[in-house]
Amino acid sequence: xxxxxxxxxxxxxxxxxxxxxxxxxxxxxxxxxxxxxxxxxxxxxxxxxxxxxxxxxxxxxxxxxxxxxxxxxxxxxxxxxxxxxxxxxxxxxxxxxxxxxxxxxxxxxxxxxxxxxxxxxxxxxxxxxxxxxxxxxxxxxxxxxxxxxxxxxxxxxxxxxxxxxxxxxxxxxxxxxxxxxxxxxxxxxxxxxxxxxxxxxxxxxxxxxxxxxxxxxxxxxxxxxxxxxxxxxxxxxxxxxxxxxxxxxxxxxxxxxxxxxxxxxxxxxxxxxxxxxxxxxxxxxxxxxxxxxxxxxxxxxxxxxxxxxxxxxxxxxxxxxxxxxxxxxxxxxxxxxxxxxxxxxxxxxxxxxxxxxxxxxx
Length: 362
What we know:
- About 40% of the residues lie in helices and about 15% in strands.
- It is built from 13 helices and twelve strands.
- Helix 3 links the parallel strand 1 and strand 2.
- Helix 2 packs across helix 8 and helix 6 packs across helix 7.
- It starts with a helix and ends with a helix.
């Protein structure tokens, strides 16, 4: 699909987002669908394997439409050895997931695209078109003329100090309470796990989208919302474990997620870092010895700060919401957990009230 991708990169109107992994692309598309857009995801069928959990526990569970355009490597048993098995089982994977699919035929491209879009809208879920070899013609493309920053890699702001991670002083529940105190009506996409549950206990809001699956993809979903609704500040309530599963999102956000090179100034990325994987028994996380805020700064975020008190968190949130970003706030918290109820809404209810809060069509 290199010719198609080159056309998208040069398109003046369509927001093409070159994702670093296919499941991240599924997450961005989910955010765009929540915000009222009609997203399409392009991938090779090897990326279908990478995307299975995101499709099952995000797109299908929340019933979010998307057009999947999947190149069919290994079609008819003719390809490099690494593509043959995936080529054989790709249709079966869609059948197992319950995703309607058909091969895209050269003689009925418009008809097949129309069918996929109509079915995706009718069913409110992804629908796939498998692209056999030769269906999409690739015009010859030369090397892209990349505008590198002066001096190579120049992080925004002053150089980060080589300091040890700040010592946590408050619990995540207290940190969440301080962060929520700075919010107005901004949409907030929550990472799965206790971040959702404790945030719900602090203050349930229609503008809250609670993730209950697809660990690591909250930042991708929020990016899709932010790109689709540039007039709104979009906030991510993330965890250190979630972010570590998806570190590729940092340069995507900080270094411009769009092929056009535009920044995403309306995104505030808050990471509640307790240094453990809480949902599976408090196993140690690498974030105990790594400055995630410095990684965000090096990735191009406009501002990146580390905070450890309620007052610092509230002040950092207010500053990030008032200024152009993207902004990164690392809230170092203790591993203490407070009893918090499970989210009482169904996935469809979470989807619909969040869409309504955004003013998006269902």
